[in-house]
Amino acid sequence: MVTTELIKKLRDETGVSVMLCRKALEESKGDIEKAKVILQRKGADAAVKKADRTLGAGTVASYIHHGGTVGVLLELASETDFVSGNEAFRALAYDIAMHVAASKPEFVRREDISVETLERAKEVLMKEVEGKPKEMQEKILEGKMNSYFAEKILLEQPFIKNPDQTIKNLIENAIQKFGEKIEVARFARYSTSNRS
Question: 71 in a domain, yes or no?
């Protein structure tokens, strides 16, 4: 049975509307973990439907970490000022900026990686697959490339506040919540030393 308390708990944990939480809980027969999966799946579907919309607004978030040794500026774009002026949207931008400070991504999305960077990585990783059976080399190399770049791509990284979801999942949930296309337009990470 879906109770008001269960709906409230799911809403508090996901930030998704009461109506969508109720539907997900009804579909999952009151199982909150299954409801989260349903909401995440619907968030991805919503993101696909809104992918061709134009981004005309957004916010810039800043985050300073480690007593001033690491700083991040991040632009989170939305379709309208109505969403970009929302406190929850700004909090999302701040959380992603904090994640960038901690996780040191180099690219927003896989498409941002230059051909030269891909070729250099492939050259280095090819040495690791030498000696493997020829028919397996390409598949092993592809796996190594995906693994190597997944750590460097913001959207593919596990979110530091909730490692069960990636930054992409976090944004898809926000798209579902706000009803608009949202994306990280760009970021810059500054550090006073190479260790941070």
Answer: yes
Distance CA 100, CA 117 (A): 20
**90 lies in the same domain as 21:** no
- Domain count of the chain? 3
Statement to judge: residues 14 and 96 lie in one domain: no
Return the structure tokens found at 10. Answer: 């799911």
pLDDT tens per residue across span 41-76: 776 666 566 566 667 789 999 999 878 899 999 999
What DSSP line would sit under 92-156, residue for residue? Answer: HHHHHHHHHHHH--SBSSGGGS-HHHHHHHHHHHHHHHTTS-HHHHHHHHHHHHHHHHHTTBGGG
161 part of a folded domain: yes
Tell me the HSE value of 192 on the side-chain side, using a 13 A CA sphere.
Answer: 7
pLDDT in tens, 13-27: 777 777 788 888 888
